[in-house]
């Protein structure tokens, strides 16, 4: 189960505004579908949460492929029926979710999005060889500049350097800093997350990344770099050392992907595999809903 479906994550990302649909049969829990409901009868995605959607706990043993497909479709049909009372629905589903037909049959729409995933990250030599020459060059440049990667970066320093990145990209940060603070605090308390920062000998923070992990995967949640120092190669070094660090807990690293061309290229050049997942929607939040959500996050 992805970290984004865990109760501790949902508590931090959604507060009290989450609920969960369950599918049980013969006293066994077979599937779950957490929902973020910030406004009445409106389902959307919480900040800094890559995916939610349906998660199948297990399939009955001995099923042929056709029967397995029918079994999972019947579960999705049940959830679609339960979702009928909501007037708007937006969710990103896990890349392990392959069949969205039950949603399509009931008038939902779907858009493909992409994540970028590194597999077998314990194989450092193999991952290094799969990187682009530019990424390897950036890492070597940062080491020559005596950039050192440390954990324990303060939340305030991290938020500041993230904001500098948005300004350089001429983008507005649409995510909630309050939610990010809670996620960092919760992940650190559980020993499942940390901020990695690249510092020069003078103590300047060049780049930082917030990473969360569990047995199944590690996830790049947020990050940024100082625009005045971005040519030091520190961001690549921070990511590379973070990947090596989390390899003691998992063998997969999810960059999460981005729709921004430069960010997408940065992830891709680490040798990560482009992996599609579904954004499934029905209806749209009203203007009043969007105002209410904005006020709630503030």
How many helices? The count is 10
- Give me the CATH fold name of the largest domain: Aminopeptidase
Structure class: alpha+beta
Q: Taking all residues together, what is the mean pLDDT? A: 91
Query: What is the count of β-strands?
Result: 12
Uncertain parts: none
> What order do the SSEs take from the amino end to the carboxyl end, as H and E?
HEEEEHEHEHHEHHEEEHEHEH
Number of domains: 2
Largest sheet: 12 strands, mixed
CATH architecture of the largest domain: 3-Layer(aba) Sandwich
β-strand percent reads 25-35%
CATH uppermost class of the largest domain: Alpha Beta
Radius of gyration (CA) equals: 20 Å
Shape: globular
Whole-Å distance between the termini? Answer: 30 Å
Helical content stands at: 25-40%
Quickly describe the structure.
The protein is α+β, with helices and mostly antiparallel strands and 298 residues long.
Task: Provide a descriptive summary of the structure in words.
By secondary structure, the protein is an alpha+beta fold. The chain has two domains: 3-114 and 277-297, Aminopeptidase (3-Layer(aba) Sandwich); 121-250, Aminopeptidase. 37% of the residues lie in helices and 28% in strands. It has helices at residues 7-14, 65-82, 101-104, 124-130, 133-144, 155-168, 177-190, 234-246, 261-268, 287-297; strands spanning 18-25, 28-39, 42-44, 55-56, 88-92, 109-119, 148-151, 193-199, 205-213, 218-225, 252-254, 273-282. Strands 1, 2, 3, 4, 5, 6, 7, 8, 9, 10, 11 and 12 form a twelve-stranded mixed β-sheet that branches. A hairpin with a 4-residue loop joins strand 9 and strand 10. Helix 1 runs antiparallel to helix 7 and helix 5 crosses helix 8 (234-246). The chain starts with 6 loop residues before the first helix and ends with a helix. The model has no long low-confidence stretch (mean pLDDT 91).
């Amino acid at each position: 189960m992805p970290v984004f479906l865990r109760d501790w994550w949902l508590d931090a990302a959604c507060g009290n505004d989450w609920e969960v649909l369950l599918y049980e049969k013969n006293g066994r829990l077979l599937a779950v579908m957490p929902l973020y409901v910030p406004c009445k009868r409106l389902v959307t995605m919480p900040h800094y949460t890559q995916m939610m959607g349906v998660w199948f706990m297990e399939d009955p043993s001995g099923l042929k492929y056709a029967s397995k497909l029918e079994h999972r479709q019947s579960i999705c049909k049940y959830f679609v029926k339960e979702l009928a009372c909501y007037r708007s629905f937006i969710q990103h589903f896990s890349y392990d979710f392959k069949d969205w037909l039950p949603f399509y049959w009931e008038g939902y729409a779907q858009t493909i999005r992409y994540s970028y995933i590194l597999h077998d990250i314990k194989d450092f030599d193999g991952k290094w060889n799969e990187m682009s020459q530019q990424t390897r060059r950036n890492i070597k440049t940062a080491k020559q500049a005596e950039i050192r990667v440390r954990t324990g970066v303060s939340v305030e320093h991290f938020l500041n350097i993230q904001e500098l990145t948005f300004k350089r990209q001429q983008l507005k940060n649409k995510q909630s800093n309050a939610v990010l603070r809670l996620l960092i605090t919760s992940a650190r308390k559980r020993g499942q997350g940390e901020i990695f920062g690249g510092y020069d000998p003078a103590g300047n923070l060049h780049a930082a990344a917030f990473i969360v992990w569990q047995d199944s995967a590690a996830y790049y949640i947020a990050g940024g770099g100082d625009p005045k120092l971005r040519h030091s190669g520190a961001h690549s070094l921070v990511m590379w050392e973070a990947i090596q660090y989390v390899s003691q807990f998992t063998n997969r690293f999810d960059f999460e992907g981005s729709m921004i061309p430069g960010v997408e290229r940065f992830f891709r050049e680490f040798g990560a595999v482009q992996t599609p997942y579904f954004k499934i929607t029905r209806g749209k939040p009203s203007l009043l809903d969007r105002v209410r959500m904005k006020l709630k996050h503030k």
